[in-house]
Amino acid sequence: MAAAPAAAGGLVRLRPPPPRCVSPRASASRAPRIWGTPPRLRLRRRRALALAAPSVAAAEAEAYTEPELVLLEALLGVQGRGRAVAPRQLQEVESAVQALEAQGGVPDPTSSSLIEGSWQLIFTTRPGTASPIQRTFVGVDSFRIFQEVYLRTDDPRVVNVVRFSESVGDLKVEAEATIKDGNRILFRFDRAAFTFKFLPFKVPYPVPFRLLGDEAKGWLDTTYLSHTGNIRISRGNKGTTFVLQKSADPRQILLSTISAKTGVEEVINDFISSQNGTKTDLSILVGEWQLLWSSQTEGESWSSVASAGLKDFQIIKEDGKLKNSASPFPGLTLNATGNICKKGSGNTFTVSMKEGAVQVGGLQFPLDAQGDFVMEILYIDNKIRISKLNQRVLVHLRIANTT
């Protein structure tokens, strides 16, 4: 301990030692066991849900089975409903889909009333044989895609809907539907039209379905339908896999809004206000995070960007060490390293960046990236982190667990 100069009477005043960080590993070891002793990945996920805002955790636990949650978790962060997905994440999605198909859901789903209604498309594979509508609209995050299934009417139909926005309108492509067996629906497209809010009439979609012959026909197999009617997996005659959901997860809505780059702050505020806050444990921060969105970053110098972690990636280790990495140009990487420490008993952490470096190919040069920041966790679960760093709001997606 450092001593101050001796005061009168020979007394020496000692400055108190600086506060020590609580070890994330130690904090985790003291945490109560929530779900017994499942496999490590499941334990991490459920610990994350327990630490996350209770309303999301409770809603998920009530509406979905564990294998369904694994699929939804794997889909978080997929852009364009499958347009852009890393190979590792695609493998996780395919594995989760196959697990649900093997498990089996509602038997003879085409005979169940649960298949009826409007389904939102949240993921699809996009082979080269995909329809023009898929290639044109499905990968655009600013559009919402639905499939309406009506089999118990005098005019059974499957309707694909592209919703441009609530204020603009939508495109509906309709098909006559016939149930072949307990899993398969046969369909034939026969009409389509745009409905715009600013026009009192429909605008025909210029595709001559009658002249297309067999090209306008197809089939759709439902390979999994959840017992709650919340999740459906279907495979089409062109080799396409579809994952659909009756009601979207609030986190999916948030990530879709970030991808669309419109109204992000409003959606973030609504999302946070709908959650019930809880204390955040240091251990849930451990992992590799990708920055999806940040407020107030225009005009920032690259040294401050690297120091504050306002671009690209962030890795947090179990010992509290932190590394921010940003690549402003191909072949150029800015790195900054430091420590993160919990402050008090709430959701506030101190971040101290110590060193920085610029890496160009195999060469490395020092970078002044020192800085001290205060980070408040506004929301966190096993996939998403929303935080405030010196008045900037940041949204991160966890892309890996790091030990």
UniProtKB/TrEMBL annotation:
Compartment(s) where it occurs, according to its Swiss-Prot or TrEMBL record: Plastid
Compositional bias (Low complexity): 1-14, 22-33
Predominant cellular place of this UniProt entry's protein: plastid
Keyword Plastid belongs to the record: yes
Keywords recorded for this protein, A-Z: Plastid, Transit peptide
GO CC aspect terms: plastid
N-terminal signal peptide: none
Transit peptide is among the record's keywords: yes
Region entry Disordered, spans: 1-34
Domain Plastid lipid-associated protein/fibrillin conserved residue range list: 70-244
InterPro entries found in the cross-reference section: PAP, PAP/fibrillin_dom
Pfam families reported in the protein's UniProt record: PAP_fibrillin (PF04755)
Protein name, as recorded: Plastid lipid-associated protein/fibrillin conserved domain-containing protein
Organism: Sorghum bicolor (Sorghum)
